Automatic annotation (TrEMBL):
This is Enhanced disease susceptibility 1. It comes from Hordeum vulgare subsp. vulgare. GO terms for biological process: lipid metabolic process; systemic acquired resistance, salicylic acid mediated signaling pathway. Gene3D superfamilies: alpha/beta hydrolase. Residues 418-614 form the EDS1 EP domain. It is found in: Cytoplasm; Nucleus. Keywords: Cytoplasm, Nucleus, Plant defense. GO terms for cellular component: cytoplasm; nucleus. Residues 107-213 form the Fungal lipase-type domain.
Length: 619
């Protein structure tokens, strides 16, 4: 790209957004006339009326290494990077929906945030702001920004789950904040559509955001030295510093960041070499990954914006690449001083800031480029860096292409479901449930429906496998049209899979359908609905009614008495009544010829007469 050609612009910050960012910068970096947030203060809240009524919650950084890592952390521990599974009670959405794998996050930062919830008036103040219809803003510098990120996600969890549709989404603005969570953490935030609410302002050379990429357990003393040099409350405070400990840590951090960036680049470039698996077996890589929207401050006129987590990770490494003529001590000093250069944001946001669509700029600059270094948006990077960033952009584009292909199959799925609905109605006209008809396989339409079932299984299995391989956009599982389509598919077709399972007596060799035979395509689509509707996990088992019935029947045939199974029978009856009342369980279940009704009538008369479904069963 010619140097005089302006880079493609990204989505510019609105005037209101720029004013709010400047306001957050003013609170996080107060002027000399106003005292900075105390290192021991849990948070401060400031109310403003411009650009709109808002309540800004400011979280101060911690300058002690103890605040960055849990007390139990040690070099030989199982989590040398200080990460731990997030508490689902605190952050229920921070997990992979389909697989159920929970996100991992900094145990120290999560503990600090939980301490605020339990031991400070944070919740009360947030509730007060919501009641006053103010927009809630979370902000902080350094590790305070990491706490602000967790606070914003906590607010989004609670706001969404309580159905506060009129409450504006929070605005989270951080300055030089360390990474907080892993890939699952980032995936969940993107899936829920929260990334645009969380803005991370980063100086390209700032060391602090990258610290979690190094093994914390073996670097405790070095990290404390870094924090001592940076802390305005420490007698050793200096914007530069010349301790040899810090360059040593800087070198360690460079190596760790290189390993992670290289590993991830190989992954999204499609490398299938077994060396990748071998690498992670003897080199433990940091689990932390960027999450949210990143804004790299390259100059007073240009702001590089990235929402692609893979690209942000590459940039975090390549921005630190040493110039052949640069000394390690000088590089470390520049990286330290960069952490206190965010104060200029307050003035910069008052001007017209150019927002650069960085990945598009790179893609357009690569063809025919012969330069060793290219400057785009104020960042000069090597050709290798540009290629890695372009690959990250291409991987994101490929995932969108994959999604478009899946969307194209939507009509095929709907057509097959329409055919199976017709099959179900035809069976009901003949006074038989479609489950029983399919299980017997006596008619031509039973055979045709099995063909439809297998066609749909192939389409849905492809979707699930693409999700497992991260080949679809993170937001796919949260798309309402696919959640609804998956629910319709599961409720209509899973009974046919259950019928096929018990028709071939697979339960005798493999085990029960629910514990051993249920395909992932039904587990995933069930969890999509539960996440989308914010209902408890495992509460949407209406499509498995027939499996529960079959198991009870099999256990009674194998010698178990009704008294042994009485509680489970009662639970199934109660669930069936609820599902039938809500319209998620078909009326064909209660036809006089239904295998369920025939079995139910063999239960003791005393139980049947008092059953909650007695009125639904024909006499």
């Amino acid at each position: 790209m010619p140097m005089d050609t302006p880079p493609p612009r990204g989505a510019a910050l609105s005037d209101d957004d720029r004013l709010l960012v400047a306001h957050c910068a003013g609170l996080s970096f107060p002027s000399a006339s106003r005292s900075p947030p105390s290192a021991t203060a849990s948070f401060q809240v400031h109310h403003a009326s411009h650009p709109y009524p808002c309540a800004a919650f400011v979280f101060p950084p911690t300058w002690s290494a103890a605040g960055w890592m849990p007390p139990s952390l040690d070099a030989g521990g199982r989590a040398p990077f200080g990460d731990a599974e997030v508490d689902p009670a605190l952050f229920p959405s921070l997990r992979s929906v389909g697989s159920g794998v929970p996100a991992r996050a900094s145990a120290a930062f999560v503990a600090a945030f939980r301490g605020l919830l339990d031991g400070s008036p944070l919740q009360t103040e947030v509730s007060k702001a919501v009641a006053e219809e103010k927009r809630v803003v979370f902000t902080g510098h350094s590790s305070g920004g990491s706490i602000a990120t967790l606070a914003a996600i906590w607010f989004l969890e609670n706001c969404t789950r309580r159905g506060s549709v009129n409450q504006a989404q929070p605005f989270c603005v951080t300055f030089g904040a360390p990474l907080v969570g892993d890939n699952v953490f980032n995936h969940a935030v993107r899936r829920e559509g929260w990334s645009q609410c969380i803005l991370h302002f980063i100086m390209p050379l700032d060391i602090i955001p990258r610290i979690p990429l190094a093994p914390l357990a073996s670097s405790r003393e070095q990290i404390q030295s870094v924090l001592d040099w940076l802390s305005p409350h420490s007698p050793n405070f200096s914007p530069v510093g010349n301790s040899l400990v810090i360059p040593e840590f800087y070198e360690t951090l460079l190596r760790s960041t290189l390993s992670i960036a290289s590993y991830e680049a190989c992954s999204f470039m499609g490398c299938t070499s077994s060396i990748l698996g071998t690498l992670t077996s003897f080199i433990e890589l940091s689990p932390y990954r960027p999450c949210g929207t990143y804004l790299f401050l390259t100059s007073t006129e240009q702001l590089v914006i990235l929402t692609n987590s893979d690209a942000v990770l590459q940039l975090l490494f390549y921005c630190l690449q040493l110039d052949p003529q640069q000394q390690l001590l000088d590089a470390a000093a520049r990286s330290l001083s960069a952490h206190w250069q965010y104060e200029s944001i307050k003035q910069n946001m008052m001007q017209e800031v150019v927002c650069v669509d960085y990945l598009r700029a790179i893609s357009s600059s690569l063809p025919g480029t012969q330069m060793n270094g290219i400057a785009i948006g104020g960042l000069e990077l090597s050709k290798e860096a540009m290629l890695s960033l372009a690959a990250a952009a291409q991987w994101e584009k490929q995932r969108e292409i994959n999604q478009a292909k899946i969307d194209a199959n939507c009509s095929k799925i709907q057509e097959a479901l329409k055919s199976l609905n017709e099959y179900k109605r035809t069976c009901e006209l003949h006074e038989v449930s479609y489950y029983d008809s399919f299980k017997l396989q006596r008619e031509v339409h039973d055979f045709n429906s099995n063909v439809r079932r297998l066609e749909l299984a192939g389409l849905w299995d492809e979707i699930i496998e693409m999700l497992r391989r991260r080949e679809l956009p993170d937001a796919f599982e949260g798309r309402e049209e696919w959640v609804n389509l998956g629910t319709s598919y599961r409720r209509l077709v899973e009974p046919l899979d259950i019928a096929n399972y018990y028709r071939h007596s697979k339960n005798e060799d493999t085990g029960s359908y629910l514990s051993k035979g249920r395909p992932r395509r039904y587990k995933y689509t069930q969890k999509w609905r539960e996440q989308s509707h914010r209902i408890p996990l495992g509460s949407s088992l209406e499509s498995c009614f027939w499996a529960m019935s079959e198991e009870l029947q099999a256990e009674m045939i194998n010698g178990k008495s009704f008294e042994d199974l009485k509680d489970r029978v009662g639970k199934l009856e109660s669930d069936a009544l609820g599902w039938f009342t809500s319209g998620t369980l078909g009326k064909d279940v209660f036809l006089s010829s239904s295998s369920f009704v025939i079995w139910w009538k063999t239960l003791p008369e005393q139980h049947r007469s008092a059953s909650c479904i007695a009125r639904l069963v024909p006499s």
